[in-house]
Structures are given as structure tokens and as C-alpha cells.
Write a structure and sequence with these properties.
heterotrimer, A alpha/beta, B mainly alpha, C mainly alpha, B: mainly alpha, 2 strands, C: mainly alpha, 2 domains
């Protein structure tokens, strides 16, 4: 027994001694000495020599539609070539594309792992939260001196991204776009309604109810269809949180926002939010909202909407305007779902509160500050990657439409989609005529766009290449007539540290009222007890700014 | 993640498989004094002399073994001991950006003040203990009746079937059940319930997002996955019951149920106790099975300590590693106490420790 | 299980009510286990997802499987799974045989200490976050090698291996030692050849663990090129992260095909290897 105890003791002593000697050489200490060292280096060198950056690592979400399965290799090759040509030396862009649905979480994990690229895409909420951390590079000077400045037609959006001290931590090449409500025409016909008649929430609700109760898919079973489906009752992953269910939320906004005087307040603890939660609860009970809305991601929601199995689907779906109008329609066609989609104008309650559908804050490109006190690398990333992105010509075309002769072409060609079926459609183009080709991964649909939407870009293409999608154009026109800017997302240190807990509490609030049927006031009390203090702290910080 | 189960089927030495005995040997000789072990070596030709050689020489004689152990030692130090140094972070405010700041016990204070932490702690205890009890019970029942099955072929076939789910990962099991339990039109269970009229044509139960249903469903999935595998150990015990006991019962005119009650169950009780004690030691480790099945709607009833740590670290925008390390340390600490407590309990009840 | 031969044989009696009920109960249990798996299998061949339980696909298609085989975002994770499982099993066997063998060298000074040094790691750990920070320093974050290293060093399996070795009659070692065999020589010439069953059994444990691991990937890996199939499967089903393809196949079909692909390797091998799995447990293991 003595030996046993001794051995245990020895083992733990060994651990302790390792702890002691390990303590001296941990990376934290070495990292704190690193900046001093390199900045000393930087100052001793003459910084005039042009900085050569041969490799740029970028992390992107699903908005780069040229995915690995969809011609990314060719896009990347042509991008490297074009950027190298512009720079005058070899540059390689390494693209890391993460799963779109979990992008925010994945970036969080990358942040924890210190495995950050040179530049990446962030949505507005993420951007606000990270902009207080000091890991993003202030690109205000770079932006002001950018080559594309002379061509910018819509300067306001990036100016608005600057904070009160004039720092610019993110750059967007295009407007953010927003969501409009699409409705299946065949379902409207089946229940005998017209889209023009849907003017108020009551009309809208009656339509959803009819979709649920009147067998709009005509399969003989009533009740197996829903009114509307969305990715979450509120999309707490990205501002504006209400944009997938604007009719139910109306003027409510379940997060921190500014009133007309610029004072920040908690939009959750308002009567408007309580009313909205009650409406959602009613919709959930009446089953006009697909119950899977609770857990669905955007991808699941839209797959359900245009699924080849229309039982279980929904008649209305609020989703991105413009290109997605075309994409949703194409997918319905591909899945042999009859009929077109029509766009629903904002209902009266939305017009009375916001004024229209919300135009979200645009996702931005950010450059990671490597913290070495030397801006040359970050400046090079900006010039090579972001400045060139709006060159109006070759590189902008790559980002807008994808790779030449893969996604688009100016060569004479003829091709058919859905060849051999009754949906067969023939396309024919003359030499020199810009046109989009078939999608690399699906020969039956036309390619639409790559990362930048030409209809939303802040500095247009100078080569005149324009997409030939009628629906996308109609969709963009419809949206711009019916949209207002979304509220600005808050940025404060407390929100950066604790924002995830607030969002958790909001999620619990929404699901407990909508799904579990907890009384709104009780649930609100729970929310306040969970997140109230943090929200207060954040508001105090925000209003002191 | 793993805790030893040694000396599987309890006190009936006669029926041990040889391997089981071998396993126990290890723990016995780890506990033995070096002399005791050398005594064992007396049986060999050189053992006695070895013992009297000077230490330096003995080390020299065994250099080959030390060399062979080196890779293991390196891996253990890197993968297990090095991370232990990190527990000092629990006294710091340590974020991805900025310097580490010593904050003393602040992280622990915050932890004990946090509702979400206590919810997760409570759920960890409830989920793992209830799960442990009901999966053990179901394993016992299934193995007792499986043991009564006369046809060897049928028995083997059934064993093959019920072991099957154990080899599926939690990711797969969660995927299968989220499809089957889905409230959508393709969900099997809701479809059946509607067809049988248990719920109305328009109704559904959202099993995995309903606070009232999540825990029961979690237990059911655990039963489905682990019952079969759990029977192995009880079947081993049952196969070792002295046949004379049954014969004696037959002579006494006992019915089948009486035999189960008076012969089979007492023989199993010790094994059941062993299984319970051994698994009690690792109840703090629950992570993957919950992680793949839970969602934000049911955090209240499903969040466990490990998933809480995960979210606080990897979902938070600017996590405080210090705080999450502190929660992890508390978890390890409770786990450690449970292991030692179970060890004590095990000694008390079985006369043998588990470590 | 050989011991069944010597176990108590029930007297041959007529079919009792008990036996009948017993059989019925077990057929039901068997069905309960099999129905979910069968449902997934059938649906993976069905073009359109339905809730009904069917014995055979009614609108047969293999497009779900073709999508997996032909889509880089799906087959890459599968290959990663195969590679990490093979390497992880190999490393696991190397470390556990070496360690297990050394731990039965009773005359080796410090043996007890080393045993406790290993056992301590099973009682106490640094926790998720310190482990993460160390792996980050080792460059194992966002790197599928983490699966190999994390599972390759498994103290529990090492102890099991050690117990197998101890079952090898020590007279064999002694004889070899007298013949002048080096420790390595004995290890390769005597111990390993006698432990084939143990190698198979413990190797399988390693393989199952690595193949089935999901949480390590969830914690350590964000790069889509480094994830394993379990992770991809879950993100497909829970987040709908399926690539668009020209295959006209419903989401449900693709999900089900993915599940089958994830369990296929072990389901195919399992009936043949069952005895090794069971041996592994019967030497005293209950594994989580």
C-alpha cells in the first residue's frame, strides 16, 4: 500500500514539476514579446521598398457561388492570373470556403484557434462584434486612396461603415440586399386568392391559413401543407433578425437598436415584440407556420419550399430579392413544381412601421491585422484583393460572374437546357456577345452570378457585361421600390464578450413562447433574469459612446 | 473518457473466462508491493537474483524496455499532461485578443453565480444518472430473457441484431432519429401517430424541440443504442451460473419465473452493482450524445456542462478561455471525486477498487 | 463464446407458453432495433421521401449514392474518414502494444510508477479548453491528423492490451530470454504472433472510435477539406449543407444515403468480426 501511495505521489509530483517548468516557456509570454521585436525590426528597415505579397489567404461563406463543385478551381486560377498581372508579380489567392449555415460559428472557432486568414467575409452582426476587438485592420486610408474611388457611384454605404472616429474596419463592394415574400401562384389559384388583394396582416394570415387548410397542392390530403416556412422564427444569426418573417414581426425588432434620437434600447423588452411573439404563437398553433421553422437553416427552409414533394411544403417564403427570385423559380422548375412565384408587396403593417422590406446591412470584407505594427502587408492585401475587386473590368467580372468560358463566355455558342424533355430550352449566342453559360454542376440551369451582384455593386462594370436574367432584374426593381434600410447593428465590448449569451436568451424566449406556449410576460421575465443585466451593461456602453 | 471495468462478473471464480482473470491480475499486481511481485518471479529461473541486483544495473538491463516505452511516454505527456498545465488559465481573464490578466477566483465566482451553469450541472446529473439506471435495467431484463432462450441459433441472431446500434456513431444515430422523429410529412413516428389516430390529422409532436419530450426521447435513443451492448457483460455472468443451482430448483419444482427470481437475479445483483458504480464514475463526461441531439429550444432541459463549455468558448465571439477553463476544471474535479468515491464504494461493497 | 458449451443445458421440454412469449418479445425487440435502420436503407433508394415504413423502395433510384460518390464535398470527407481510421488504428496498435508489453516487465524498475503515470490521465484531465490550446500550438487544429493522434494514444486500450499479453505464458518469454532474444525480438517473435486475437479486437476498438468520432471534428476542424464523414453527414442533415447537383434526388433520399454510407463499412464487417468485439468487452471493458 505504501508503494502505491508513493507512486501516486510521484506521478502527481511529476505533473506539478512539469507545471512549474512549463510555466516559464508558455506561448503567451513569447507572443507578448513578438510585437516589440518585429516593430523594432520594422523601424530599423527602410520601409520604402515596395512590399511584395505572394500569397493571400481568404475565408469566404456561401456567397461565393463558385463553389468547389461549381468551377471554383477555374475561378481561382483566373483570379490568380489577373491579380498577378495587375500586381506585376506572382500572387496566389488561397480560398477557404466554409459551410454557409454554420459560418458564424466556424469563424468563432477560427478566432479561438488563432487560425485567421488575411481577409474574410463577415456579415454585419459579426462585423460589429469583431470591430471592437482590434483584430480587424483599419482600412480607412486604404479605402480613401483606392483606385476604384473614381468610379464609385454609391459611396454612402462604406462611409456609413466608418465608426465615430473615422475607422473603417470592413469594406463592402455591394449593397446588402434584403428579403421579399414570394408566393406560389398555383397555390393562390387553388385557394382562389389574388396577390394584389393581400394588403394587411389579416389578409396575409388568411392566405396562409388557406394554404394550410384547403389542400393547395391538390394531393387530396388537407393539412399536410403549411402557409410559410423560414429559417427560424427570428434569424438570430444575422441582422436584420426579422427579415425571414417580416409579416409576423412587423414593427418589432428583437435585439438592441437605436430609436429616432439615436438612443440605444432593447427591442426585445417592448410591447411590439410581445405582440409579435403572440402572433407567431398563434401561427404556430394554427399550423400556418411550418413547425420545422424552429430548427431549419436557410438551406433546409428553401429546399422544403421548392421540394419535389409539395406535401409538407409551404406556399409563402420570404427570401432574398433579385437573383434568388430566379434561383427559386429555377429550382421549382427543376423539381417539377408547377407554376411561377409572385412577389408580395409589403403589407400595410410593415409599411406603417418600417416603411418597407428591410435592406440589410451589407456583408463586408475585413482584413485581419497581424498586429506587427507594420501596415504594409495589410495594405497589400487591400490593394491586391479588395481594390482590384472593383477594377470595373477583368477582376470585377470574375467576382461578379465567375470564370470566363466556365461560368460565362463571349464566344459564339449554342446549348440547350433540359434537353430531351418538354421543358427543353435552346440558347444561341453570337461571337462577342456576353452570356452566362450553364452551371458547371447542373447543365439544366443557367449560371447566375458569383460573389458580387451586378445590380447591387457600388461601382459598376465598365465592360458592359450584364446578366440576362429577367426575373432577377424584375426582382431587384421590385425590391428597390419597396425597401428601407435596416437598423444599424450595435457594437460594444460587452456585446462582443457576452453577445452569444444574449442571443441564447432571445432564442429561448422566442421558442418558449412560440413552441412551448409559455405566457409572454412570464417568458419575458425569464429573459430579463437571464440577459437583463448584460443588456443593461451593453446599453450603458452604447449610449456613452 | 473511459473508465475501467475490471473483474467483470463478480465473485464466481469458477465461471470466469480466462481473460477476465487476466484483467484483474493487472490491478492486483499494480497494487502489490514490489516484493510481492518478485515473489511471483520466484517461479521463474532468474527472478530471485534480479531482486538483489543494484538498481543501476537493473535499469541498465532493462534499457530496451525503456526505449520501447518512450513513444508511449511522449504521447501521454503531449496529449494528456501538457494540457493539464493549462488549468492555470482558470485564474486568468484570457481572451483571443489582448494579454492574460490574473483575476484570482473571479472566474469561479462568476461560474457559481451563473444560472446557465447550474442548469447545465443539474441536467448533467439528471440525464446521466437516469440514463445509466434505465439502460442498465433494460440490459438486465433483456439478458435475463435472452438467457432463457433455448434455441442457440435464434439467440445468436438476436445478439447480432441488438449489438448493431452500438457501432453507429452518435452523429449517425442522431441523424436517423431526427429524420424519423421529424414533424414534417416524411417523419415516420408522427405519420404513424396520425394514421393510428393517436394525434389529430393536423397535429404533430416536435419530439426533439419540445421541452416535455426531449429528455424521454433522449433516454429512448440511449436504450435503443446501448441496451444490446450492455447485455454482453450480464450474459457473461449468467453463462457462469452453476447449472446445479437450476437443477436443484427443478427438483424443487420451481417454475421458470421462480428460477429467474431466486437463482438468476441474485447472481446478477453483484454485476449490476459493479456496472452502476463503474459508470457512475464517468457521468460528468456526457457531451457528444447531447450535442448531436439538442437545440436552442431545449437548452433548459438538455444543456450539460460540456456543451455549456463548448458554447461559451466556440460560439461566443470573444470567449474568455479563463472562464471556460474554470468550468472545465470544476467538471474534472467533480469527475475526480466521483471516481474516488466510486472506488471507495466499490471497495466497501465488492472488496475491490476500480482504480 | 466457447463457454456456452459447458454452460447449463436446459432440459428438452415441450414448447411452453413462456418460451412462446419470450420469442414474441424478442422478435419485437429485434424489429424495434431494425425498423429505424431498415427505414433509412429503403428511403435511401426512394426518389421521394415519405413517412410510411416500406419494406422495399417504391420508386427506386441510386441517385442518392451517385451524388455522394460524384460530389467532391461529400466524397472528400469519406476519404478523410478512411485515412484517419486506418492511421489512427495503426498508431493506436503500435502504442498500446509497446506500452502494454513494457508494463508486464515486472523486474523493470519504475514499472509501477509508469503504470500510475498512465492511469492518472484517466482520472483527471486538463479539460476541453486547455487541450484545445495545446493542440493549437501543435498545429493540430484544422488538421485531420488530430483524429489520429487524439485516438492513437488511448490508455484504456493500452491496459487491455497489457492484460492480453499477461495471458501469454511467461515460460515462453523466459525461454526466449535464455536464447538471447532482445526485448524487441521477444516482442516481435513471440508476443505479437500469440496476440492476433487481441490485436484484432483492440484494433477494431480503435477503428470504431476513430471512424465514429464526431465531436473532435466539431471542436477542432473548420476547414471543409479536413472534416470527416460523420461531421459532414450531420451538417448535411441538421443544417442542410448539401451541394447542388444535377441529380434529381430529394434531400431526404440524399440524407438517408449519407447515413448508410457512414455505417456501411462496419455493418459489412460486423457479422464477421462480432466475436472480436465481444471478446474485447469480455476481457473487462465497458466503453463509452
Amino acid at each position: 500500500m505504501k508503494k502505491k501511495a508513493l507512486s501516486l505521489l510521484l506521478a502527481s509530483a511529476m505533473v506539478a514539476s512539469m507545471a512549474a517548468c512549463g510555466g516559464g516557456s508558455t506561448p503567451a509570454e513569447s507572443s507578448s514579446s513578438a510585437p516589440a521585436e518585429s516593430s523594432a525590426q520594422a523601424s530599423s528597415e527602410v520601409a520604402e521598398e515596395p512590399y511584395v505579397l505572394n500569397e493571400i489567404n481568404i475565408t469566404v461563406d456561401g456567397t461565393l457561388t463558385a463553389t468547389v463543385d461549381n468551377g471554383q478551381k477555374e475561378f481561382n486560377e483566373q483570379l490568380n492570373e489577373a491579380i498577378s498581372e495587375r500586381a506585376g508579380y506572382d500572387v496566389v489567392v488561397n480560398i477557404e470556403q466554409l459551410d454557409h449555415s454554420t459560418y458564424g460559428d466556424a469563424i468563432g472557432r477560427k478566432m479561438v484557434s488563432n487560425d485567421l486568414p488575411d481577409a474574410m467575409i463577415m456579415n454585419a452582426s459579426m462585423f460589429r462584434e469583431y470591430s471592437t476587438t482590434g483584430i480587424l485592420w483599419d482600412m480607412a486610408d486604404a479605402y480613401d486612396n483606392a483606385e476604384f474611388q473614381s468610379r464609385i457611384t454609391l459611396p454612402a454605404i462604406n462611409e456609413n461603415l466608418k465608426d465615430s472616429q473615422g475607422h473603417l474596419y470592413g469594406f463592402t463592394p455591394a449593397y446588402g440586399n434584403g428579403c421579399v415574400t414570394y408566393v406560389k401562384q398555383t397555390w393562390l389559384d387553388a385557394v382562389g386568392m389574388k396577390i394584389e388583394d393581400i394588403k394587411t396582416f389579416d389578409d396575409y394570415y388568411a392566405m396562409l391559413k388557406a394554404f394550410h387548410e384547403q389542400d393547395p397542392d391538390g394531393n387530396g390530403t388537407t393539412g399536410d401543407t403549411y402557409g410559410v416556412v423560414a429559417a427560424g422564427f427570428a434569424n438570430t444569426g444575422e441582422a436584420p433578425y426579422i427579415n425571414y418573417m417580416p409579416e409576423f414581426w412587423q414593427g418589432a425588432y428583437p435585439y438592441i437598436l437605436q430609436d429616432e434620437n439615436g438612443t440605444w434600447y432593447d427591442g426585445v423588452q417592448t410591447d411590439a415584440t410581445k405582440e409579435a411573439l403572440k402572433r407567431l404563437r398563434q401561427g404556430y398553433v394554427d399550423q400556418v407556420i411550418d413547425p420545422e421553422t424552429l430548427t431549419a437553416t436557410t438551406k433546409i427552409a428553401r429546399e422544403k419550399f421548392f421540394s419535389n414533394e409539395q406535401s409538407g411544403s409551404s406556399g409563402a417564403f420570404t427570401y432574398w430579392a433579385g437573383t434568388w427570385y430566379q434561383t427559386l423559380t429555377d429550382n421549382m422548375k427543376k423539381n417539377e413544381v408547377e407554376g411561377d412565384l409572385v412577389q408580395l408587396a409589403p403589407i400595410q403593417e410593415i409599411k406603417d412601421t418600417w416603411g418597407g422590406y428591410l435592406n440589410r446591412e451589407a456583408p463586408v470584407w475585413v482584413i485581419i491585422d497581424d498586429g506587427d505594427g507594420d501596415d504594409r502587408k495589410e495594405q497589400a492585401v487591400f490593394s491586391l484583393l479588395l481594390d482590384s475587386m472593383l477594377d470595373g473590368d477583368r477582376i470585377q467580372t470574375l467576382w461578379t460572374y465567375g470564370a470566363e468560358d466556365v461560368h460565362w463566355s463571349t464566344k459564339a455558342e449554342e446549348f440547350k437546357t433540359d434537353e430531351g424533355t418538354d421543358k427543353e430550352k435552346a440558347y444561341s449566342y453570337a461571337d462577342g456577345e456576353f452570356h452566362l453559360k450553364q452551371s458547371p454542376n447542373d447543365k439544366n440551369t443557367l449560371w447566375k452570378k458569383n460573389h458580387i451582384d451586378n445590380a447591387l455593386v457600388i461601382s459598376p462594370l465598365t465592360n458592359g457585361y450584364a446578366s440576362n436574367s429577367e426575373l432577377a432584374e424584375a426582382g431587384n426593381a421590385f425590391f428597390s421600390q419597396n425597401c428601407v434600410d435596416a437598423p444599424v447593428s450595435p457594437a460594444s465590448a460587452t456585446l462582443t464578450d457576452e453577445g452569444a449569451n444574449i442571443v441564447d436568451a432571445i432564442n429561448v424566449l422566442i421558442s418558449s413562447v412560440v413552441v412551448d406556449g409559455v405566457d409572454v410576460d412570464t417568458a419575458m421575465d425569464t429573459y430579463v433574469s437571464k440577459a437583463g443585466a448584460t443588456v443593461e451593461a451593453a446599453l450603458a456602453e452604447l449610449n456613452a459612446q | 473518457m473511459t473508465v475501467l471495468l475490471l473483474g467483470v462478473p463478480i465473485g464466481q471464480d469458477s465461471c470466469f473466462t480466462r481473460e477476465v482473470k487476466d484483467l484483474i491480475l493487472f490491478y492486483e499486481d499494480v497494487g502489490k508491493e514490489e516484493d510481492g511481485m518478485s515473489k511471483k518471479k520466484v517461479m521463474t529461473s532468474t527472478g530471485v537474483e534480479v531482486r538483489h541486483k543494484p538498481l543501476g544495473l537493473r535499469i541498465w538491463n532493462n534499457w530496451g524496455y525503456y526505449l520501447m516505452f518512450l513513444p508511449v511516454l511522449i504521447f501521454v505527456i503531449i496529449m494528456h499532461y501538457w494540457p493539464m498545465l493549462g488549468i492555470r488559465y482558470s485564474f486568468y481573464n484570457y481572451r483571443p485578443v489582448g494579454d492574460k490578466v490574473w483575476v484570482g477566483m473571479e472566474n469561479f465566482v462568476r461560474m457559481f453565480a451563473e444560472d446557465a451553469f447550474w442548469t447545465s450541472f443539474k441536467n448533467t446529473l439528471i440525464l446521466s444518472i437516469v440514463k445509466l439506471i434505465i439502460t442498465t435495467l433494460s440490459s438486465v431484463v433483456v439478458s435475463v430473457f435472452l438467457n432463457e432462450m433455448g434455441n442457440l441459433m435464434a439467440k445468436k441472431t438476436l445478439q447480432t441484431i441488438i449489438y448493431l446500434p452500438h457501432f453507429m456513431s452518435w452523429a449517425v444515430v442522431a441523424s436517423i432519429f431526427s429524420l424519423i422523429l421529424s414533424p414534417s410529412s416524411t417523419g415516420l413516428v408522427n405519420g404513424m401517430l396520425r394514421e393510428w389516430g393517436v394525434i389529430g390529422q393536423q397535429e404533430y409532436i416536435y419530439f426533439l424541440a419540445d421541452k416535455a419530450w426531449w429528455q424521454p426521447i433522449f433516454y429512448i435513443i440511449n436504450i435503443w443504442k446501448e441496451t444490446g451492448w450492455g447485455t454482453i457483460i450480464f450474459l457473461a455472468t449468467l453463462s457462469g451460473i452453476n447449472p446445479e443451482l437450476y437443477e436443484a430448483a427443478d427438483i424443487d419444482g420451481a417454475t421458470r419465473m421462480q428460477k429467474i427470481y431466486y437463482v438468476t437475479m441474485p447472481a446478477l445483483s453483484n454485476t449490476i452493482m459493479t456496472v452502476l458504480i463503474l459508470n457512475l464514475a464517468k457521468i460528468m463526461n456526457m457531451f457528444e450524445s447531447v450535442f448531436v441531439l439538442y437545440n436552442s429550444a431545449v437548452y433548459d432541459v438538455s444543456d450539460v456542462v460540456s456543451t455549456y463549455i463548448y458554447r461559451q468558448t466556440f460560439v461566443s465571439k470573444m470567449p474568455n478561455y479563463g472562464y471556460t477553463t474554470a468550468v472545465g476544471l470544476f467538471k474534472s474535479f467533480v469527475g475526480c471525486i466521483l471516481v474516488l468515491g466510486c472506488n471507495w464504494l466499490s471497495k466497501k461493497i465488492r472488496g475491490r477498487g476500480i482504480i | 463464446m466457447a463457454k456456452e458449451k459447458v454452460a447449463y443445458k436446459k432440459p428438452k421440454t415441450k414448447i411452453t407458453a413462456f418460451a412462446v412469449i419470450n420469442y414474441i418479445v424478442f422478435i419485437l425487440i429485434g424489429l424495434l432495433i431494425l425498423v429505424p435502420i431498415w427505414k433509412v436503407l429503403v428511403d435511401s433508394f426512394n426518389r421521394v421521401g415519405v413517412y410510411q415504413f416500406r419494406l422495399w423502395p417504391h420508386d427506386f433510384t441510386v441517385d442518392g449514392y451517385l451524388t455522394i460518390i460524384n460530389t467532391a464535398l461529400l466524397y472528400k470527407p469519406f476519404i478523410n474518414s478512411v485515412v484517419t481510421t486506418l492511421l489512427g488504428t495503426l498508431l493506436g496498435l503500435v502504442l498500446s502494444t509497446l506500452g502494454g508489453y513494457v508494463l508486464i516487465q515486472f523486474e523493470m524498475p519504475g514499472r509501477n510508477f509508469l503504470a500510475y503515470f498512465l492511469l492518472f490521465t484517466m482520472i483527471f484531465s486538463g479539460g476541453m479548453i486547455p487541450e484545445y490550446l495545446v493542440m493549437r500550438q501543435l498545429g493540430l487544429v484544422n488538421n485531420m491528423w488530430i483524429l489520429v493522434f487524439k485516438h492513437g494514444m488511448n490508455v484504456y486500450n493500452l491496459v487491455l492490451m497489457r492484460n492480453f499479453f499477461e495471458g501469454v505464458p511467461s515460460s515462453l518469454y523466459e525461454a526466449a530470454k535464455i536464447d538471447g532474444c532482445s526485448p524487441m525480438g521477444i516482442f516481435f517473435k513471440i508476443v505479437l504472433p500469440l496476440s492476433k486475437a487481441a490485436l484484432a479486437s483492440i484494433g477494431l476498438m480503435f477503428a470504431v472510435t476513430v471512424w465514429n468520432d464526431y465531436s473532435t471534428v466539431q471542436i477542432y476542424i473548420t476547414d471543409p477539406n479536413q472534416v470527416n464523414f460523420q461531421y459532414k453527414l450531420r451538417s448535411m442533415i441538421m443544417a442542410g449543407d448539401t451541394p447542388t447537383t444535377s441529380y434529381n434526388v430529394s434531400q431526404t433520399t440524399l440524407y438517408n444515403a449519407g447515413i448508410i454510407a457512414a455505417i456501411l463499412p462496419f455493418m459489412v464487417l460486423y457479422p464477421f468480426l462480432q466475436k472480436y468485439f465481444v471478446t474485447g468487452v469480455n476481457i473487462g471493458a465497458v466503453k463509452e
